[in-house]
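Recall the central idea of this unit: under ordinary conditions, the amino acid sequence of a chain determines the structure it adopts. In this exercise we apply that idea directly, starting from the sequence alone.
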Amino acid sequence: MLPSSGNPDSLLQHRSFVAFWIARAASSFGFQMLSIVVSWQIYSITGRAFDLGLIGLVQFFPSVALALVAGHVADQFDRRRVVLLGQVAEWVAIAALAYLSLTHHVNEVIILGLIFIISTAKAMEAPSLQSMLPALCADASARSTPSSSTPRTSSANLNPV
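Accordingly, the structure predicted from this sequence is:
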């Protein structure tokens, strides 16, 4: 558990925020591990560095192409349900990737397709996930620090001076 601050406006005083932050940090860590493993796997299958670039493109493209659509979905539908559907889609694609890898029925097209599905799900859920932060804290501390929704930037916001 993160150390508690004596400041009543600290985000650490909100149990739901701390749980949300830890879950986001774990998810980010898992996605980074997946990226490394998939890159290693596709390079071992093809031996071409070009395919590593394709993985990066397939991971990046949905976040740009779907930015406006995902924001609209976050505004029009239940955000919890959007995040849940995105997480389910990611897990199904990851499970399919694991199964196909274990049974040696995987090739570069399948890997790129499944990574595209995972990245599309992440792109669609991102605005809904980010907009859930203010609802986690009863006071205005989270509303004044929108960057605290990401683990990489929230360490500076956890114990305000």
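The chain has a mean pLDDT of 83.
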